[in-house]
Amino acid sequence: MKRKSLAVACVLVAALAALGVWADEGLWTYNNFPKQLVEQRYKFSPSDAWLDHLRLSSVRFNNGGSGSFVSPGGLAMTNHHVGSDCIQELSTAEHDYMANGFYAPTRAREKRCPNLELNVLMGIADVTADVNAGARPDMSDADRSAAQRGAMARLEKECAGKTGLRCDVVTLYEGGVFNLYRYKKYTDVRLVFAPEAEVAFYGGDPDNFDYPRYDLDVAFFRVYENDKPARVEHFLTWNPNGVREGDLIFVSGNPGSTGRQLTLAQLEFLRDTAYPWRIQVFKTRLKALYDFSAADAENARISRDLILSYENSLKATVGYQGGLLDAGLMAQKAAAEKALRAEVAAKPALAGEYGEVWDSLAGAEKNYAGFYFEHQLLEQLIGLRQSHLFQFARHLVRMPVEKAKPNPTRLREYRDSNLESLEQDLFSAAPIHPAMETVVLTRVLTEMVDALGADHPLLKQILAGQTPPQAAARYVAGSKLADVAERRKLSEGGSAAVDASSDTMVQLARLVDPAARAARKRFEDEVEAVERKNGSLLTKLLFALRGTTQYPEATFTLRLSYGEVKGYVDEGRPRRWYTTFMGSYELNAGAPPYRLPQRWLDRKPRLNLDTPFNFINTADIIGGNSGSPVVNRAGELVGIVFDGNIQQLPNRFLYTDQEARTVAVHAAGIVEALRKVYGAQALVRELRMAGGGQGRAAAKKPAAAE
Questions:
Q1: Of all residues in the chain, what percent are helix, strand and coil, respectively (each to 5)?
Q2: Does residue 281 contact residue 288 with C-beta atoms inside 8 Å?
Q3: How does the average pLDDT of the chain come out, rounded?
């Protein structure tokens, strides 16, 4: 990590943010895109038809990434690191597609992913009034939040029943607005092409969140319906020339989460409690996985994807924490909050409605700090659910209980509109590796001892007199849940079968469920409900004082950002806007992480080494945007987002484009590699090149985003 660069970036953020909204700032929803801002800066205003086409060409990968359709035959492109779950799951010791790559020149050779879902956003409707209809002013924060969750579940079920689509009510502006998103869902997704991991992630963890880069971080998949390739109306035409410096570009993707509207107390909670613990967790888990990986080649193969995931999470979190530890950035946030509070206090009408917002949020964060570790370890993904076997067991324990309840009162993940996706996860045929499960569970149990104390009553029951390694080995060895048939049998047997099961992982899930539910309810009632109520009040306040042309925090839903192709100066060193294939060969050291695959060495003479490979731009992104298409004014695909530089990490809290850059793979570089390194001529022919074909299969009116 370039700590000096990060510190410089934070100082620049603090010094320059006071000048106003940055020119290219914004993770905009499609139903509130600022056409006038783009017109003012770039003399281009996208039409409604342009926006609809890009929206309907964009896809969300349910495992945390973005992508786009690039042919009428259902061909979708994303990053290799987004598709790596599927690539790893399809790999075996004999056929290691992560190490050696994969290409299916015919449909018959495409391989179905065990557990991958793609979503296309078909429409958006404002349902704020419907969600709030039952939330009375005299209700407690907890009761108000419960009423809203019930209304959301009802709306989703009604929508799914009427349309046959996946319907999700999305909370925007911290609860100030609720939108109903309707998705077409594809669950038969097959791998078409993936390069070797060594070139997809060239430079490895040292170059992650850095620039210059030389990565072919792409993968192609195809969606199927009724066992046939899906025909999609909207897809992106491929511009083989890519981009030039100064070009206006747009990024359409699903950014995960930001914290730009968080209060100072909320930021301090992340800085002082959440991030230090997460950093320590990631470090110790990585140490355990490194040791596991070093034991033999098979361990290295099966742990590679998880190691990459933890390395990425660690580096990102260290970067976020670096921003919050910077005195300049925090001073800027504190000054902005102080000014807003003073403005409210000076006006009695505002003070009566909004004056207690900040103290209420500060109280919620202080309260959460008292049970944060318990909530995270027992209920959240970072805890016991890191074990695939435990995740299966939890669903088997909870699903029959939740399905017996009225839909509006269930835990959100068990609502009717989400059950199909949840069951796809539960019955996935993805391989489970008991040895790695034991390593991961050992670390989680050890973290529970460290955070909760060895005398914690529940932990004493979990360990039953054993050490964390011994208990983890017992729970994994005594479970049959790696077998899909066993999971189906228990699911079909309902609560009776689950309650009678002697499966050790099911027993663990049953044991922790009361405490996990209690921690979740406490979080929802005492933290989330307070944040939603007061966050919506802050949004209402800002709308009243600053106007309604603002974008909401990221929510892993489709957003559109824009910017320009532009280099920057890094500690006095000019960084050119693009890199070339030549740079990757110059860096090749013959050993990881700078080792080019053998076929790249063999086929070097075929390549035009001056072809642009990666490029940078000022578009606003955050984690979840990986795989997002980059398009030009014509709506043509010119690249695919795969990273940001180190200076971009503090943008999670305060945006700047002074040095922060989005890093993408150049469209010309992708085609050059497909043709001359991989001989993927059939794949290239399927891409509709600008000037040689249409980017839309039929000139039908696109579905509207209301």
A1: 55, 15, 30
A2: no
A3: 93
